[in-house]
Specification:
The complex is a heterodimer. Chain A is of the alpha/beta class. Helix content of chain A is 34%, strand content 26%. Chain A has a six-stranded mixed sheet, sandwiched between helices. In chain A, helix 14 packs parallel to helix 15. Chain B has a two-stranded antiparallel ribbon. In chain B, helix 6 crosses helix 7. Chain B starts with a helix and ends in a 17-residue tail after the last helix. The chains are: A alpha/beta, B mainly alpha. At the A-B interface, helix 2 and helix 3 of A face helix 7 and helix 8 of B. The structure holds adenosine-5'-triphosphate (ATP) and magnesium ion. Magnesium ion binds next to helix 1 of chain A.
């Protein structure tokens, strides 16, 4: 019996049709994946179901009864809960306060009492949280558990999860999946949005694919394969980009020595990191999130001042240089936080020239015509799905990343720093970004790829370093790297301790 | 020396009272995410409505009620502009201040006409809970409203941190999307916060005309609304710290009054500006680690 039926849903944003006559139904007790490229309309469809958007056409049935959902409040009344792509928690409130928010209850709030209540719900549903902690002190995984518990403690019978695993480390994904499996046994129905096909094939019962706002189809997991799903999503079969050739050593371009830096909490985040990247190679930095990758990226982008060590680009000392100086010296950065590289409220055209305004102005006046012309050129070249005058805010993640790539790579930098460049991107966009990085390598740039996605590192990098608690556990050539070795290094074993004398193998 | 200090302390509390009321009013608005720059005008219309109400009915309490009513109307107008229509908060607030200033002066002339001697009324009586005890007696001889203002500080803390209503206010001020997704009515909560804030601002204005001056003049508010805006930052948006800011300003303001009467060889304009200078100094020192509500100044719209 379907618990949710969405029929003929249409949603337009100005000229764009984000959902075009979509039919979607959810069976009682199933985990149903919603797949599609960036901008396919998945989030839009779910926001309609949760009352955050209003559909222009179509109707929604809950347990075979038509309902009107005008706000999240209505959705909650109908037993629908949602964990949004960007969390909706109040960071300055405690976990317990966040959970009690919007619930009926006594006028007077006793902090201890609501914490006890949360503790009870947490145990009953098997989702561990820290009731008294402030949300802003929690890790992403912990915040997500709070979100899930928030939905479930309101007796949701339908749970919508919008890309819940995009920000989680593997262990956290496992915890989440265990909880979902168990809750399904108890009759919960789940809608699960993800870009990761292996995950979808592991946990879901049925899969619905959207493309460009239209429904491609719904299939049972048992009747499909990852390849077929990919084809449904992007309209082509083969995907996956990998390094084809071996590197030709051509001298170091980026040299980093004994780099130290403080993290946001004032604790040391980098404790003497050293490596070099040669022209025409990709050095991958692997590691579990939160081991200093963010700080490394920020230091190399000139946004965080190192507290020790040296950075040299093409033998020029650039320790402590700011972003402008680094750009001048030929460093292009793809930052981890896309929103820190772009001004959300400015247009695509403006964002494309932000860091090179001198070239587009005369006597302090911007040359609008040339800025637009420049934008048209890069939009065409990078296949950005947007027009020059669209504000960045309206773009999907993949298209935002393309704007950043276009801006940085158009200046043919000698050194490219790419931090988590494909996080949250769909297969198509991921492939695109990866192929661009390989293109940079082929033209002789030194590429530093900081990524938590081990598959990505193994597919692209010539050499792989693993970072753990702010130190490198070793650097090894990609041919010599196995998932086991890297996995051990990611948990803090140095390369030497795993393979005391690599030469001994050959002896 | 003793009477000087006693007089100074008593005056400090008196001068601090409207600042405490006004700042707590602003606190309710800002914690809900609305910067209410209409405060200066709301104090003014509160002072006027209080005076007019008292003069026309002969009851100071009815005057106070009128001031509260006008304060709430002001809060409601602010809500209409910034919450319902999503108009820029700076513009709406400054506009309201201009509007209430003009309105009050016009209405004052309409009701009382133009006379050489400005009309005046008997002010509120003070109460002296400690009778004639040395020190405590004269210092504690204050208006009821002063005691109310002092009691309001812990009460405001309690409402914000120990009631569901306060939790809702903090949530819509920090992250309205989250509050909305949790099923709260962001518009209603922000409107309620502005209503409470307006009521307190009206009361603050009425204190000036009904307890301090017994009259209504053009310069009765003299920038106290702007001082409240500064005090909020000084207090780091916490009710408990509002007291210290208000006492500091009140203390310096009373001190300069006394210094003027001592006949110091200082230009009195300099003395007059002293409290404001101290406010700015205190702000630069205290304003470093400020944590404003994250969604202050942001209108909320669901798509
Ligand atoms: N509030 C909005 N205003 C204008 N356009 C919007 C708005 N929200 C979404 N869109 C557009 O609608 C389309 C669908 O967006 P949606 O967020 O549903 O995609 P998605 O499938 O969730 O993508 P992703 O995988 O990147 O999260 C996109 O082109 C997006 O730019
Ligand atoms: Mg989405």
């Amino acid at each position: 019996m379907p618990v949710i039926q969405m029929q003929g849903i249409v949603k337009r944003f100005a000229s764009l049709t984000a959902n075009n006559h979509i039919n979607f139904d959810l069976e009682q007790g199933e985990i149903h994946a919603l797949l599609g490229e960036n901008g396919a309309g998945k989030t839009t469809l779910m926001r309609i179901l949760y009352g955050l958007y209003h559909a222009d056409e179509g109707q929604i049935l809950v347990n075979n009864h038509p309902v009107t959902i005008r706000s999240p409040h209505d959705a909650i009344q109908n037993g629908i809960g949602m964990v949004t792509q960007h969390f909706t928690l109040v960071p300055t409130l405690t976990v317990a306060e966040n959970l009690t928010l919007g619930q009926a209850g006594s006028f007077i709030l006793n902090p201890l009492e609501i914490q006890r209540q949360v503790e009870k719900d947490s145990q009953r549903l098997g989702i561990p949280v820290k009731p008294a902690a402030l949300v802003r002190h929690l890790s992403v995984g912990e915040q997500q558990r709070v979100e899930v518990l928030k939905a479930l403690s309101r007796n949701a019978r339908v749970l919508i999860l919008d890309e819940p695993t995009a920000v989680l480390v593997p262990q956290e994904v496992e915890i989440l999946f265990d909880a979902l499996q168990r809750l399904r046994q108890e009759g919960l129905s789940v809608i699960f949005i993800s870009h990761k096909l292996p995950e979808v094939m592991t946990i879901c019962d049925r899969i619905t694919v959207l493309r460009d706002g239209a429904l491609v189809g719904t299939v049972a997991k048992s009747a499909t394969t990852a390849t077929e799903l990919a084809r449904m999503m992007v309209g082509r079969e083969n995907f996956g980009v990998a390094r084809q050739s071996e590197r030709q050593p051509a001298g170091p371009l980026l040299q980093v020595e004994a780099l130290q830096a403080q993290g946001s909490k004032g604790l040391p985040a980098l404790r003497g990191v050293g490596f070099m990247v040669e022209a025409g190679e990709i050095l991958g930095i692997a590691g579990v999130s939160g081991n200093g990758q963010t700080e490394l990226g920020r230091v190399l982008a000139g946004m965080l001042r190192p507290s020790g060590g040296h950075i040299r680009v093409d033998d020029k000392n650039l320790t402590g240089a700011g972003p402008a100086e680094l750009a001048q010296a030929g460093v292009g950065c793809i930052l981890e936080d896309r929103h820190a590289s772009l001004v959300d409220d400015m247009t695509v055209a403006e964002n494309l020239v932000l860091d090179q305004l001198d070239g587009f102005s005369r006597g302090g006046m911007l040359n609008r015509a040339r800025i637009l012309e420049n934008a048209r050129k890069w939009i065409a070249e990078y296949q950005i799905k947007a027009s020059p005058n669209d504000p960045i805010r309206q773009l999907s993640g993949g298209n935002m990343q393309k704007v950043i790539l276009a801006r940085n790579l158009s200046r043919t930098p000698k050194v490219v720093i790419a931090a988590q460049p494909t996080r949250g991107l769909d297969v198509g966009a991921t492939d695109y970004v990866r192929s661009k990085l390989l293109e940079q390598r082929a033209r002789g740039a030194a590429v530093l790829l900081i990524s938590e996605d081990l598959d990505e590192i193994m597919a692209l990098a010539d050499r792989i370093a693993v970072i753990y608690e702010g130190s490198l556990m070793g650097i090894l050539p990609a041919q010599a790297a196995t998932v086991e070795t890297l996995g051990l290094m990611m948990t803090g074993k140095t390369l030497e301790s795993i393979r005391p004398t690599p030469e001994a193998d050959h002896a | 020396m003793e009477p000087f200090i006693i007089g100074l302390l008593a005056a400090t509390l008196r001068v601090a009272t409207p600042l405490i009321l006004g700042t707590l009013g602003e606190l309710f608005s800002e914690r809900a995410g609305i910067l209410n720059l209409g405060i200066e005008g709301t104090l003014f219309v509160g002072a006027f409505a209080g005076f007019a109400g008292a003069a026309l009915t002969g009851s100071l309490w009815l005057g106070l009620l009128a001031a509260i009513l006008f304060g709430m109307i002001s809060g409601l107008l602010m809500a209409l502009l910034t919450v319902r229509l999503g108009v820029n908060q700076h513009v709406s607030g400054l506009g309201l201040t201009l509007f209430w200033t003009g309105f009050s002066l016009f209405a004052f002339r309409l009701v009382f006409g133009e006379s050489k001697v400005p009309p005046s009324i008997e002010t509120f009586q003070t109460v002296s809970p400690f009778g004639n005890l040395p020190w405590l007696g004269p210092i504690s001889s204050q208006h009821i409203l002063t005691y109310f203002a002092l009691a309001l500080i812990p009460l405001t803390w309690w409402i914000l941190y120990r009631t569901r209503f306060g939790l809702n206010i903090r949530a819509v001020g920090e992250n309205p999307e989250a509050a909305d997704a949790a099923g709260l009515n962001v518009y209603a909560i922000r409107t309620q916060a502005l209503l409470i804030g307006g009521a307190l601002m009206g009361m603050a204005g009425a204190f000036l005309s009904l307890a301090q001056l017994g009259a209504f003049t053009y310069g009765i508010v003299a920038g106290r609304g702007w001082v409240c805006i500064a005090l909020i930052i000084f207090a780091n948006w916490e009710a408990s710290r509002v007291l210290w800011g208000a006492l500091l300003f009140g203390g310096v303001a009373s001190l300069q009054l006394r210094l003027q009467t001592l006949g110091l060889k200082l230009p009195y304009e300099l003395l007059l500006s002293l409290p404001y200078i101290v406010t700015i100094l205190a702000l630069t020192l205290a304003g470093r680690n400020v944590s404003a509500p994250a969604s202050l100044l942001k209108a909320y719209r669901r798509e």
